[in-house]
């Protein structure tokens, strides 16, 4: 047995490791307690700096210690001259770099480095950019490093085109670098600040952005990074904040105001014939503290005389804007509005040059589709390009692509159904405006959701029959002029949005899934002119005493069909 190395058993090894861990823990806890004690006593000396360095070197995510370290450094700034402070902070940068080697995604280390760089008397930004390059070469999705790089670029004034070239290099080496694609989306608007809508116009200018993205598409069509960036390029600018419609009704002495986004009623003022009016604004539904549509009632007799012309102005002080509306003699209602077409809400008027570029992009993506006919990103992008070019002209082709999308990406079929519903509603709004009617008919279109209901404020008749709708949401109450609601042959079980519609007379809901009507009786009762209610083919009709309950709670209904 002599001369053989004694091999320790597993139990012995584990025991030695445990003792070693306990020894290190005691040292760590003693140093931590010493730091806390010094901080409580307001001591900011070199020993405290060394103690925090010792602890943070092994655990760089101890936020309290970074805070204490900053307190010490700020104290040293008051007792050291500028050159000494420079040396202290340069040493601090070296220390944070060592911490980042322990954990390259340490929140505390990156934050502290940014704090130090901002306070350094003579910062070396070139060094910081080099550090970022090195870190991103090891992990091109280190978002801590990307955030820090943006700070360095801003502080040092690196030209935007130089940073754009940097993203080119990273994307060229890895098309899947989502962080680089995203960074480009923040840089391009800075490169072209004169444009009110950077995303569309950047795509449409003859610059090599398209080729960069297309190279990524054709290299790996299933990688989502470039597709998301391309969707951003095809995106729209934010809508202008404005009063989009003012509606006034003489008989009901009611004013409804629609906005381009949900707002609160603070700062809304109504002026009638030059005289401010004291009115109480309310949203269209109790659920909404902010709403795209607000309504108010004028005192009785204010505008009821049909022989008088009245002029109203709604002021929105938050945006320093207003909207006028004239109620002419002999008219019972009037409105002043910007249509969805006027606002370019669903499509923009394209110049010949822009149309040509978009057509070229569409052809390129179609070429890829020939190679990858079942690629979901390709199909979705084709739909978006078609909508940018001609949403009505490409409607049938778009619907065919949606059907394919649901087959090849069945896990997201509900998303595609909702998106298709949104596009079909937009198209129907455009058709209604072109026809200059107040009837919105979108039956048998496989709708799964309702949207853009603020654009239907003036609609008097809506037909939603033979779709797949499950609810009439609270936003439905924005249809303040609605007289007839047709929604037969859906799967509707929620009527929450049929609320306080002052002109509603007919509600046709045959063959739906309404089971608990008692929940919505109060909402239906809030519609004072409701005369006809058709609930045939709903489970609720099998409920005992339902007819007598409805007759009691809805006395205005004279034609009840169960």
UniProtKB/TrEMBL annotation:
* Rab geranylgeranyltransferase alpha subunit insert-domain domain location: 243-340
Q: Which SUPFAM superfamilies match?
A: Outer arm dynein light chain 1, Protein prenylyltransferase, Rab geranylgeranyltransferase alpha-subunit, insert domain
One Pfam family name from the record? RabGGT_insert
Annotated EC: 2.5.1.60
**Single GO term (MF):** Rab geranylgeranyltransferase activity
- Tell me the GO BP annotations in alphabetical order: prenylation
Q: Name one GO cellular component term.
A: Rab-protein geranylgeranyltransferase complex
Q: Which domain of life is it from?
A: Eukaryota
Per its record, the protein catalyses: geranylgeranyl diphosphate + L-cysteinyl-[protein] = S-geranylgeranyl-L-cysteinyl-[protein] + diphosphate
Question: Per its UniProt entry, what is the enzyme's top EC class, as one word?
Answer: transferase
Which UniProt keywords are present, listed alphabetically?
A: Leucine-rich repeat, Phosphoprotein, Prenyltransferase, Repeat, Transferase
Q: Which family does it belong to?
A: Belongs to the protein prenyltransferase subunit alpha family.
Summary of the function given for this chain in its UniProt record: Catalyzes the transfer of a geranylgeranyl moiety from geranylgeranyl diphosphate to both cysteines of Rab proteins with the C-terminal sequence -XXCC, -XCXC and -CCXX, such as RAB1A, RAB3A, RAB5A and RAB7A.
Name of this protein: Geranylgeranyl transferase type-2 subunit alpha
Origin species, per record, is Astatotilapia calliptera
């Amino acid at each position: 047995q002599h001369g053989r190395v004694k091999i320790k058993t597993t139990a012995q090894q584990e025991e030695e490791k445990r003792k070693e861990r306990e020894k290190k823990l005691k040292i760590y806890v003693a140093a931590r307690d010493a730091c806390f004690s010094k901080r409580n006593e307001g001591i900011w000396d070199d020993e405290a700096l060394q103690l925090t360095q010792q602890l943070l070197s092994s655990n760089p995510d101890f936020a309290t210690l970074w805070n204490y370290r900053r307190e010490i450094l700020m104290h040293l700034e008051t007792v050291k001259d500028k050159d000494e402070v420079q040396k202290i902070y340069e040493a601090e940068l070296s220390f944070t770099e060592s911490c980042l080697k322990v954990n390259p995604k340490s929140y505390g280390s990156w934050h502290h480095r940014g704090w130090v760089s901002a306070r350094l008397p003579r910062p070396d930004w070139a060094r910081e950019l080099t550090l970022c390059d090195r870190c991103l070469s090891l992990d091109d999705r280190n978002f801590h490093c990307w955030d820090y790089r943006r700070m360095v670029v801003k502080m040092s004034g690196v030209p935007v085109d130089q940073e754009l070239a940097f993203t080119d290099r990273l994307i060229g080496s890895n098309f899947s670098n989502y962080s680089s694609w995203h960074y480009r989306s923040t840089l391009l608007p800075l490169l072209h600040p004169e444009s009110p809508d950077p995303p569309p116009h950047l795509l449409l200018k003859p610059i090599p952005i398209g080729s960069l993205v297309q190279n990524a598409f054709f290299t790996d069509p299933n990688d989502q990074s470039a597709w998301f960036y391309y969707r951003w390029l095809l995106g729209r600018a934010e809508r202008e904040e404005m009063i989009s419609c003012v509606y006034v009704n003489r008989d009901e002495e009611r004013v409804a105001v629609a906005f381009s986004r949900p707002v609160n009623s603070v700062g809304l003022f109504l002026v009638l014939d030059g005289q401010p009016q004291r009115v109480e604004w309310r949203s269209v539904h109790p659920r909404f503290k902010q709403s795209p549509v607000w309504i108010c009632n004028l005192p009785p007799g204010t505008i009821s005389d049909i022989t008088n012309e009245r002029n109203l102005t709604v002021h929105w002080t938050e945006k320093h804007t207003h909207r006028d509306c004239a109620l002419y003699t002999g008219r019972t209602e009037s409105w002043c509005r910007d249509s969805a077409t006027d606002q370019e809400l669903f499509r923009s008027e394209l110049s010949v040059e822009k149309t040509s570029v978009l057509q070229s992009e569409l052809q390129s993506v179609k070429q890829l589709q020939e190679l990858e006919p079942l690629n979901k990103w390709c199909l979705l992008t084709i739909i978006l390009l078609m909508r940018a070019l001609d949403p009505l002209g490409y409607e049938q082709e778009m619907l065919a692509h949606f059907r394919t999308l649901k087959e090849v990406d069945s896990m997201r079929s509900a998303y595609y159904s909702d998106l298709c519903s949104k596009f079909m509603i937009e198209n129907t709004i455009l058709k209604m405006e072109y026809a200059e009617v107040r009837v919105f008919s979108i039956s048998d279109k496989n709708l799964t959701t309702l949207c853009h209901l603020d654009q239907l404020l003036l609609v008097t008749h809506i037909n939603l029959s033979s779709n797949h709708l499950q609810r009439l949401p609270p936003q439905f109450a924005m249809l303040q002029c609605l007289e007839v609601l047709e929604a037969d042959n859906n799967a509707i079980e929620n009527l929450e949005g049929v609320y306080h519609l002052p002109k509603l007379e007919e509600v046709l809901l045959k063959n739906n899934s309404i089971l608990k009507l008692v929940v919505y009786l109060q909402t239906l009762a809030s519609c004072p002119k409701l005369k006809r209610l058709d609930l045939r083919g709903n489970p609720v009709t099998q409920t005992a005493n339902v007819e007598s309950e409805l007759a009691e709670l809805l006395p205005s209904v004279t034609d009840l069909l169960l």
